[in-house]
Write a structure and sequence with these properties.
This protein is an alpha+beta fold. The chain folds into two domains: 163 residues, GAF domain (Beta-Lactamase); 54 residues, Orthogonal Bundle (Arc Repressor Mutant, subunit A), CATH 1.10.10.10. The chain has eight helices and five strands; from the N terminus they run ααββααβαββααα. A hairpin with a 4-residue loop joins β4 and β5. The N and C termini lie far apart (69 Å).
Length: 228
Amino acid sequence: MDWERFAEQMARMARDLLAQDSVDATLERITARAVEIVEGCEAAGILVFCGKRVETLAPTDGLVVRSDQLQERLAEGPGFDAALRSQPVYRIQDFTEPREGWPEFARQARALGVGSMMSFLLYTREEELGSLNLYSRRPAAFTKGSETAGWLLASHAAVAFSSARTADQLQHALATRHSIGEAMGILMERRKISEDDAFTVLRRVSQDRNIKLRDIARQICESGGLDD
């Protein structure tokens, strides 16, 4: 492992991740960089939990999706367990040999074409985000150096993922606030009511119709008013 070159790649990656304009773009850069940077890595993806369901984000290969679906179905596997923080790092050298850990996943992963795999918990001090999973179709593709590189990549990725998600949530919140403000303005003009009364109308309609406030506001902005 050329660590000087790796350090340069990580520095470029850190700047690159911060330049992305959405969560999806950030995650796609993370997994693409994993394939480029980590020795032995042929495919990468991020596993997250949505309630009790597993979702695959930014997969670079269909193998990643099939593996995550298998882990969800069996409720076991290195990516599944890493995301639940059973252990922050897993490196499975050879799926072609019988395994004591995750025996059923290992058997079916071999059939999918997985030769070796590494999984890293994505976490910051504030939150756990899921797991970064790296794959090779070859047995023993990952070395100790690969594991160290993957762990460093996962550390950068977790911070970038968390920051991008926070920024995305902020943008969504600002857009929602703008939409509500615009809807209130429409009601104030059409009904000749105060700002407080306009918000009260929005909230009452939201409760009566069991529709989120932001959706009521969007409907008013699109239609130019609210039916009685």
